[in-house]
Write a structure and sequence with these properties.
Distance between the termini: 39 Å
Number of domains: 2
Order of helices and strands: HHHHHHHHHH
Shape: elongated
Helix content: over 70%
Oligomer: single chain
Number of helices: 10
Length: 172
């Protein structure tokens, strides 16, 4: 799996917010006039990842992008976190924070599942609950549940499923 980059994240946001499946900056620009979230993501993309000639053409043709792009003049890949933390750029900070959340989502979920795993093991041992009882009662895949419960393999279950197991064990 490829690592998520800010450029890739912005492009996926542009597609999602515009409803356009392609990558045409002209298409995004046309739709951005009345869509502020799309406009903010587009301005970030234009200022950070678009060559000067194309950016200038787009800014001439779609003048409503000028204000947002002007606010972001000087932003680069190296200073984006510090740059968007300015008070007047809070809308751009939200976009960047969402990117960081998505970038770290897997690691955060793994930490959460590890904490729940420890609690599950404690309660399971106290109440003498078998793995069989857990996956039969909850109608879960036996192999995945056993891999999680025996070896702590957090990749086999989602956070939601681990929560179900924890809830079941606590209420048993």
């Amino acid at each position: 799996m490829r690592a998520l980059t800010f450029k890739g994240y912005l492009l996926s946001q542009l597609q999602e917010l515009s409803g356009v499946g392609g990558t045409s900056l002209y298409s995004f620009s046309k739709l951005a006039e009345n869509n502020f979230r799309l406009k903010d993501a587009l301005c970030l993309y234009l200022m950070m990842f678009t060559d000067k000639n194309l950016k200038n053409k787009l800014l001439k043709k779609y003048d409503y992008l000028n204000d947002g792009c002007e606010k972001l003049s000087g932003i680069t890949d190296n200073n984006v976190e510090k740059y968007v933390s300015k008070k007047e750029l809070s809308e751009y900070k939200t976009i960047y924070d969402n990117y960081l959340y998505r970038l770290n989502k897997h690691n955060n979920e793994t930490k959460i599942k590890n904490l729940m795993y420890k609690k599950i093991c404690e309660v399971k041992q106290q109440k003498c609950i078998t793995n069989y009882r857990i996956y039969k009662e909850l109608n879960l895949n036996a192999g995945n549940v056993n891999s999680f419960l025996k070896y702590g393999n957090t990749d086999k279950l989602s956070v939601e499923t681990v929560r179900k197991v924890l809830t079941f064990i606590n209420e048993y």
